[in-house]
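step 4 of 6: structure.
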Amino acid sequence: MNVLIIGASSAMARSIAHQADKGDKLILLGRDIDDINDIASDVSLQRGAEVHPLKLDMSDRDSYQKVLTSCLETLGSIDSVFFCHGVMHSQEDAADDEAAAALMLDINYTATVLFSNLILKSMLARGEGNLCYLSSVAGDRGRQSNFIYGSSKAALNTYVEGLQHRLRNTGVHALLVKPGFVDTGMTWGLPGLFLVASPDKVASDIWKAVRRKKYIIYTPWFWRIIMLIIKMVPRFIFHRSKL
Amino acid sequence: MNSLELAQHGWGRVPVEVSHCYRPEKIQQAKSICLESKNIIPFGLGRSYGDAALNLDCDTMLTRRLKRFLSFDPTSGVLTCEAGVSLEEIINFALPKGYFLPVTPGTKFVTLGGAVAADVHGKNHHQDGCISNFISELELMTADGEIMICSPEENSEVFWATISGMGLTGIILRISIKLLPIETAYLRVTHKKASDLDTILALFESHADTHRYSVAWIDCLASGKNIGRSVLMLGDHAELNDLKSQLQKSPFKPRLKRKKNIPFNFPSFALSKLSVKAFNKLFYWKHSESTHVIDYDQYFYPLDSINNWNRMYGKRGFIQYQCVVPWKTGAQAIQKLLEKLASSGRASFLAVLKAFGDQGSGLLSFPMPGLTLALDIPNDKGLQEFLIELDEIVLENDGRLYLAKDSFMRKDDFSQMYPKLPEFIDIKNRIDPLNKFQSSQARRLGIIKS
């Protein structure tokens, strides 16, 4: 399988890359190219896959087409794309710091949509391919403690939902992944975490869902129930909570 | 970078100390942590027994997210990987390619970085020395956040201070290690029984050249003329034709035993003098003098098959006391130590005796030519005073204690045991003048003046 992983130096992306096998071809994309190089060596040594590191800064929109062309040259065709890039600033930082909020919204939502639109063209032309978007349970209901980040993911959810509709009968498939708390650098040291899952567990859930052409998964699975309850709580009670 | 306040302990479960834990996932993050922190120590898998990787009320850097394999040369066997890689991960990677660790301690659940920082030895020390003999190069992140490449040729002073330096010279980022080519994942093991100390010492001497690995399990509750009663376990990597024909088909894929787990702390009477005495008798009589072929896991890592075996000692925790005494008076010293232990009423479930080879070049490296004894002792009342009595025997005989196991050694004893300490402190002061890299152990032992 020919795979692109965007935002490849995040812990979750690393675990996704580590599910590759001999015969797979991967391109790992990210900003910190030294780090991406190390991950590429690691995955190719441990998994026997062919891995190419490539620099991509999601905040540099002008570079998208060039990067994508170079990916297509390297791989020939692209079977699966994992959108793992993301920025999370705390609610306070995002509320007070305009640049931080703008960057977070831009990287999590705008950049994903624009890059995704470009890839779609080649996938639709070929009539096959998988797109996998890492969203978050934070996008399911706005909470006072994390709603600027959450809204960037909610916007992404709507995009993917519409995309799935658009892709009906095209052979191209889109998966929306909503992880709960995952033990990564993004969550390390944050207060109020519970039921924290390992990145490896989440990565294996994601691959399974890609193979089974699922539309939306929560990972670990019980977050579907937790979020269902959170969404059902009436507003007058919800607003009294500290969530 | 965010940090998490965690109560950490070593494998002995005493002491427990709270520190601010950082966990970088990239070198860049390690760098910013190094620059921000005023007082930090790397923490890998927490398998040193005492406070070597603890840093009370200060910072620790958890290194387990920096564990990437970077290159491997299948002809020379040189592997380069990040320091957070565990020995288990190295075995899983290298074994199918026909390579094994050139030196391994009694557990594979340590990071390579920790193994280098403690300059660990294995059952083959008498032939191959410490792990540092196989390290060709390492990358060290120093206090200024810069990366220094160290090898026996380049920055050699810092190299030999970092080897055995217990993380006090900086954060080891990557390590190149030359692995050992092997034909199978099995070992040919011979057991020999010794009824007393003289017999086991004679056995060590006569088998020094004949076997790559040797270690003796010793019954530390035997007394009188039985003192030193032991079983010597000699081993060599099995060749292909040592294996039964069905194993020869896949010599690198042993069917390892399933892991057991100790899910909770045992009550403290579980490991008492009585139960250990019974176990030791059984162990001694059960082992017959024989040769057989077993997989590497059973030979090198018998305790790794039980997860959380440290919980057997219960909530009180335990310490491991490991000392080495030079040959000159080694036999008498070991005799005295065993007598002292037997008369104290304390039970050591695990007691291991081994002959060491030459001293390595690591400035704080533990092994020296002589005999090493390792005892697991429950943390019961009066332990510290008892250990001081043992320390005195070790000191009288010009021996020393192992930093990776230590939790109670006294400052003055330490400087007497490690004559190259001033040299180490000189180098540390040069590359880390503000003492950014500190641990509770380093402060206790006066490596860092507090």
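step 5 of 6: annotate
 - Chain B has 14 helices and 21 strands.
 - The mean pLDDT of chain B is 93.
step 6 of 6: archive
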